[in-house]
Amino acid sequence: MQTESQDVNVKINEKPSYTYPIFIGENLIGNAQAYIEKYTSAKKLLVVTNKTIIDLYPNSLNLKNAEYIILEDGEQYKNFETYKLILEKAQELKLERKDALIAFGGGVIGDITGFCAATYLRGIDFVQIPTTLLAQVDSSVGGKVAINTEFGKNLIGAFYQPKFVLADTSVLKTLDNRQFKTGLSEVIKYAFIEKTAKCDYGFLEFLTKNVESIKQRDNKTLKELIKICCEIKAKVVNEDEKEAGLRAILNFGHTYAHAIEKVTNYTHFTHGEAVAIGMRFAFDLAKKLNTISADYYNEAISLLAKYALTYVLPSGIKKEDLIEAMSFDKKVLDNKVRFILPIGRAAVKITSGTRPEEICN
Length: 361
Ligand code: NAD
Ligand code: GLY
Prior knowledge:
Elements: E1 8-12, E2 15-25, H1 32-39, E3 45-50, H2 51-56, E4 66-71, H3 80-92, E5 100-105, H4 107-119, E6 125-130, H5 133-139, E7 144-149, E8 152-159, E9 165-168, H6 177-193, H7 203-209, H8 211-215, H9 219-239, H10 254-263, H11 271-288, H12 294-306, H13 319-326, E10 337-344, E11 347-354, H14 356-360
Parallel strand pairs: 2-9, 3-4, 3-5, 5-6
Antiparallel strand pairs: 1-2, 7-8, 10-11
Helix pairs in contact: 3-4, 5-6, 5-9, 6-11, 10-11, 10-13, 11-12
Bound molecules: nicotinamide-adenine-dinucleotide (NAD) and glycine (GLY).
Nicotinamide-adenine-dinucleotide binds near residues 52, 75, 105 and 179.
């Protein structure tokens, strides 16, 4: 069986030994075995997935020598108990260093599987087969892997890169509309930061021109869109794998989004919906601070509206609660947050040392 040539090459710190390919296209997952044989030396495979995905795609991966662990579906299962379950299964199967874990699912599955791979036998190979738009454009690329604790999201984790990523656009057809839009929010984020990532795909224009085919999930358009997002992310991660600086721009809209998710108990909005509100908030702040032109402000707000990424906060949310939530953000230092502010068309800057009170004023 042949594998296609790669669509994006992710390099970390310019190190060739850290380089891995991303394949993007229609009907790729049926060929997973060929990719695994080419990019790993695994004899045994443990596929981590969940009930929803395996019901939709029961035999689609077509793998030899694979065992499956099928998790409950939901962010609440990205936790210590599930981490332990997966590692126990790996031990029962006597997986060795050269074997591999396969993450087949959205960001929840990718994050927990990657963290298991990073820690089992001090690190075994893993492969990302992302099945949501969010996972294909964001979480499967760049090596952040983690689980949640009762204190917060992604608090225990590692930077651990997969051997390759297989992003099959066909599986996006079964995503419900809300989950698809959640992914689109992260997609639009890339358009707002691309110049600062030193890229020039004209992604704002691409998203403006292709609204209908993107909404209809046209495979060819999605392939192009996913490729641009992965290239922008790969460029940023190559420069700053461990988020010492530039990588923070990938969190555009996220400081406010995380606070919203926290004060609404992670139940009212999906992550992407909260990010859409966070980006709108960042544009409102930029307009107030005069860091962007009125034309660009209108262009950005109208792009969010074209994809129906407009949401209102539920009534009763207090400014003080958002401020309090922001001060618990992972990136807070001396009670100051790094806020990502638009400063021009498709450009942002990382403000250092902003107090949450100043942001929310
Ligand atoms: P998810 O994994 O919960 O998937 C969303 C829903 O879609 C689930 O119910 C899932 O079962 C279902 N689903 C998955 N694929 C499907 C398909 N093809 N058809 C139908 N339904 C399908 O959520 P997500 O949005 O993919 O990921 C969110 C997670 O990603 C969060 O835990 C977040 O912290 C993490 N994340 C990580 C990074 C990173 O860099 N590692 C970046 C962004 C987000
Ligand atoms: N999703 C943000 C990052 O990967 O850094």
